[in-house]
Structures are given as structure tokens and as C-alpha cells.
Amino acid sequence: MVTCLCKNRFGMLMVKWKIDPCMQAIKSCNVGSLGLSPSLLRTYSQNLQPAKQDVKQEKSVSIKNINYRTDEWTNVTPKILSHIGRNLHLQKDHPICLLKDLIVTHFYSKYTRSRDRPIFAVSDNLSPVVSTHQNFDSMLIPKDHVSRQKSDNYYINSSTMLRAHTSAHEADLIRSGLDAFLTVGDVYRRDAIDSSHYPVFHQMEGVRLFTKHELFQNSDEKLSLFENGVELPDKQSGHTLEATKLVEFSLKKALEDCMEELLGKGIESRWVDAYFPFTHPSFELEIKYEGEWMEMLGCGVLRQNILDNSGANDRIGWAFGLGLERIAMKLFNIPDIRYFWSDREEFLVQFRNQKNIKNLKLKPFLSKEPALINDISFWIPNNFSSTDFYDLVRNVAGDLVENVSLVDEFTHPKSGEQSHCYRVCYRHLSRPLSQTEVSDVNDAIKREIVSQFGVRGRW
Ligand code: PHE
């Protein structure tokens, strides 16, 4: 194994063991493939004129019957907006919903107060449209922080966006008086295209706050939650070390128990130090899967400012955020993240009315057709980011594309112009694709590059 410097999207470097993307491992499972919805298929085969790439040319954009003004920050696309309301986490018998239920049931039964009343409240129906204040400021993410970039997020306008994490609701829920809650929802990020990344996925957030009495269990000692100290690697300036250690213990125990419950007692796991602007200390939990360490979640002791700003200044607490797709892919042996959005009966039926959910593995029902590869090179415009190209590809080719990677960058020695070469890997989840069909889609992508970026292609 090799050590390396890695970053999460909050940007701080950490030293940790090199982990291959989890899907390298999952991909090798010989699980079959499945298909796209009939309506998507019609879109690909009959109409290769893409939907308008973004809606910023329009004065306003309507989401769930509410109109939002657009401005120079607007970068949501009709394709992305079409995912709002699908709510896979609320669809009975959908693997994302099944996994959510498993975790919720675990927290309900494990943490109770008198008369078996669960401690944790669940909110799974909050709108993904949030303010930038909720998504960033309320979680202490600085104004100039990299995670706010337009190239990483879907903005409706400069002050409204599709949430990039379920942490966007933490401050509001704490302010509403909750001391322990789980929040589940769809989150939106402009990201790479491969078998483990999709611009929409589902997160579960967990928060638990403690009063002094709850944390120290009425012990006789004169222990306190707060002190006027200095920040150290293992505690915040306002927290005592003993309070921090107890909160950290409760957090790690809760998550280790939950993972064991889902993935079995024998799983190997380890904690890695991490950085998030809203927690300190912060950690990531990694699980060993088929010989590789795989990052499962981020968590930590909540920054006290968040509690103070939300009317809970007499409490200390922990928070975690986990990606449901990532765990579901591992738990159910699902080889490609596009499967979750499929409405193919062969896929959905395997999860319907199943008793032993935790032992359910997706059975191959179609053979995996070989991928067709096409390279596309073009001169990049000013202020270009690769996510602009990924969005364009998703708009034109939708879920026919399994993977896009930047394979070459070139700077013209005289003009200084830069070009990118992207390798686009096409694979339908349920049927062979012909090279003619793929060429049509590829040509449509090229036309769109020219019309959208106003650049010369290199083809
Ligand atoms: N919001 C973080 C993310 O999306 C995860 C997280 C939640 C980390 C809560 C710490 C505490 O990456």
C-alpha cells in the first residue's frame, strides 16, 4: 500500500492510505446490466437534438410551481431539474428507500427514551431547493471557499441552489428544537461521469446533541462541557477535552454499530482524520471491501458556533453525513450507479416484498455488452471547467454514457490556446449499442460543443 495526500471536497489535505475508487472493486462483480426508461430510450433514438443546455437564457426557472429569477450564477439544466421529485428515498421497495429504512430502524430501536419512544426524529421530505445561506453560511463555510464554486454546484441563481449536502438543513432543524435527528434527501453536485458518480445522489445526515447531564450521566464529578481554551487537533477551543472525548466516543460507536448492522459483524473498518469546516475534530470512516479501503462517511464534533447560532448554546453534539448509493451498491452488489434511476422491471422486482433485505444481492439478468469508446478533442473556452463538458454530455447522451475521462491536455506553443481531449465510453445498461447509433450521439455532442462553447473542434 502507498501513502498519499488526499482531499475531500472541503479542500483540506490529509495523509491517508491510497484507496482505489470503490467501484473498481464493485465493477469487477459479474452482475448483469439493465436498462433505461422507455421514455429516455425514445429521447436517444429519435431526438438527438439536446434540450437547451441551461436555463440562464430564460428570465426565470420554475421548480415545483415556484418561479425563481435567473442570473449569471444560474447553471441548472432541464435534465438535472427533471430529477427533482423522483424521491428514490421515498419509493417503497426501491433499494435507496430500503437502505434508508434499515438505517432508520436501527437508530429507532437502538436509541430510545422511556416507553421505547425513539430519540431520533426523521425528516425525509425537505425540498432540495435551498438558499446558499443554508448550504454554506449556516455551516460556517467561508464566502471564498472552493466548495462554493459554480463548477461544483447547481445554482438556480446567486442566492438559491440545489442542496449539495443534507447538512444544509442542520442549523434549521436544531433551531426548531430537535436534539437528535436523521435527515434524508437527494443532493446535487456537478461531478465526473463514471460508474460511481451521478450528479444526483442521496445522503443521510445524523445529528445528536447532549446536555451536560446527558453526556456525563449525572456523574458526581464537577465536569463541564465548556471552557475558555485553545483549539487543539483533538478539540475546539470552547470544549473541554473530556466532553469532546465522550461525544467522539458516542459518534464512533453509533456509526460502527450501524455499519456492522448493515454489512455484518466481520467487517473491517478504520477511522481516518479529516477536515470539514463545520466539525472539529472530523473523521471519515473507511470499510474494507474486497481488499480495498472504501470511504463510507464523514463526521465529527459539531462546531459550537453552529449550535450557538441555532439557540442550542447549552449543548454539545456530533454530526455525520453518508452517501446512500455508495452503501447500497456495496450491500446489494449493484455495479453501476445509473441502475438506481432505472425503471426496468427486471431491476425493481428483485427488491420488491423481500424479507431478508440485508442478504439481498442483485442477480445478473442481462449480459454486460462491451463499451464503445470515442475520443472528443476541442479548444477550451476561457473559464472552462471539465464539469461544463460533463453536463453537456449528460444533456445530450444521458445515461448512455458510462464514463468520461480527460485523457490529454495540450497548449498550442504559439497561440497559447489550450485543448482538452475527453474519452467518452458508451454502454447501454441493457442492450448492445451499434457504432452508428453511438456516432450519431457523438456527433450531436460535437455540434453542441460548437454551439454552446463557441469553440473550434479538433475532429
Ligand atoms: N456534509 C458532508 C459532505 O457532504 C458530510 C458531513 C456531514 C461531514 C456532517 C461531517 C458532518 O461531505
Question: What is the number of helical segments per DSSP (H or I, 4+ residues)?
Answer: 13
What percentage of the residues does DSSP assign to strands (E)?
A: 25-35%
Strand order of the largest sheet: 5-9-10-14-13-12-11
CATH architecture of the largest domain: 2-Layer Sandwich
Number of domains: 2
Mean pLDDT across all residues, rounded? 88
Question: What share of the residues lie within helices?
Answer: 25-40%
List low-pLDDT spans: 13-52
Largest sheet: 7 strands, mixed
What does this 3D model show about the protein?
By secondary structure, the chain is an alpha+beta fold. It has 2 domains: 3-30 and 83-339, BirA Bifunctional Protein, domain 2, CATH 3.30.930.10; 365-453, 2-Layer Sandwich (Alpha-Beta Plaits). The chain is built from 13 helices and 17 strands. The protein has helices at residues 22-27, 38-46, 78-81, 95-110, 132-135, 170-175, 212-216, 241-263, 304-309, 324-332, 345-348, 386-397, 435-453, and strands spanning 3-7, 13-17, 60-63, 66-69, 121-123, 129-131, 155-157, 160-162, 180-188, 200-210, 269-276, 279-289, 292-302, 316-323, 372-379, 401-411, 418-426. Strands 5-9-10-14-13-12-11 form a 7-stranded mixed sheet. Strands 6-8-7 form a 3-stranded antiparallel sheet. Strand 11 and strand 12 form a beta hairpin. Helix 4 packs across helix 10 (324-332). It is globular, with a radius of gyration of 23 Å. Mean pLDDT is 88; it is low at 13-52. It binds phenylalanine. Phenylalanine (PHE) binds at residues 165, 167, 205, 276, 279, 298-300, 319-321. Phenylalanine (PHE) is lined by residues 165, 167, 205, 276, 279, 298-300, 319-321.
